[in-house]
Amino acid sequence: MKTRLAALTFILILPLPGLANQCGEVTIADMNWNSASFMAHLDQFVLRNVFDCDAQLIPGDTMPTGTSMVEKNEPDIAPEFWSNSMREALDNGVAQQRLSYAGVSLSDGGEEGFWVPDYLVEQYPEMANIEGVIKHAALFKHPEGEDSFAFYGCPAGWTCQLTAGHLFDALNLEQAGFTIIDPGSGAGLAGTIAKAYERKQPWFGYYWAPTPVLGKYPMVKVEFGQGSDQAHYNDCISQVECDEPRPIMYPPSLVQTVTTYSFASKAPEANAYLGKRSFTNQQMNALLAWMEDNQADGDYAMEYFLKEFPELWKVWFNPQQIEKLNKALAAL
């Protein structure tokens, strides 16, 4: 009897295979914009096939997802979270060991600025700086033939209408002869870039990245010469009232992969992958342009990316993990 009990005890205390890295059921927020949906499908495929997780996608959006992760500990993963939108709540969640910052989804951060087409800078290299744009202001003809120069602003009602307007004032662009043109919508603003590019005409205005537009139409972000200042941006440029705006560059928006603390603890290897999985804006711009041209959803884009760009994703994995992923890809 003692022998049998000893054997039973030995069996019970043996660690189960993979218990220290037991992934189990995992929920991933599938946010309602293309880059985030692509990353959600990518993470689902990788977690299922490399880390043996039972990974499921659930609908998500920035504020509801962040709130749910803090209060309800679900979903487990938000692959592309624009953290500044609820920075205090997220930081509190991390401090209370409810959340974890796995890594940055976009290594450049969300990017905003005033842009000109690259073919203009090739012709006039000084246009990479605001002084050069002002010097050649006469090239930016107003589309309605008015006696002023065109600056395409952010659509009315968007937050960037405020920020772009304050920076327009800080740069004294009205004194240089420019008028802000409201494009009416995001699609309208994108259309002005496409039209200018197709005709190789001058264009100057506000835009952001990552976007399919900047993937299709290479643009140069104009330098203002004073760098960035997060405090001034928060206290003045992004506020309705900004009496003394300074011509600072837009600070990058932190875009992170946020996980629950419980997921990071139970699946450290999977969490380590999320810390390595990151894209530059140039890479994401190109992928978003491909998605738009091919009317591809996040799942289709995931397959395209993994099959066409192994040189980008192989650095996220060790040789054994790469072998598992390649095997899963071959079965698609």
From TrEMBL:
Keywords: Signal. Residues 25-308 form the ABC-type glycine betaine transport system substrate-binding domain. InterPro entries: ABC_Gly_betaine_transp_sub-bd (IPR007210). Coiled coil: none annotated. GO terms for cellular component: ATP-binding cassette (ABC) transporter complex. Residues 1-20 form the signal peptide. Transmembrane segments: none annotated. GO terms for molecular function: transmembrane transporter activity. It holds the Pfam family OpuAC. This is ABC transporter substrate-binding protein.
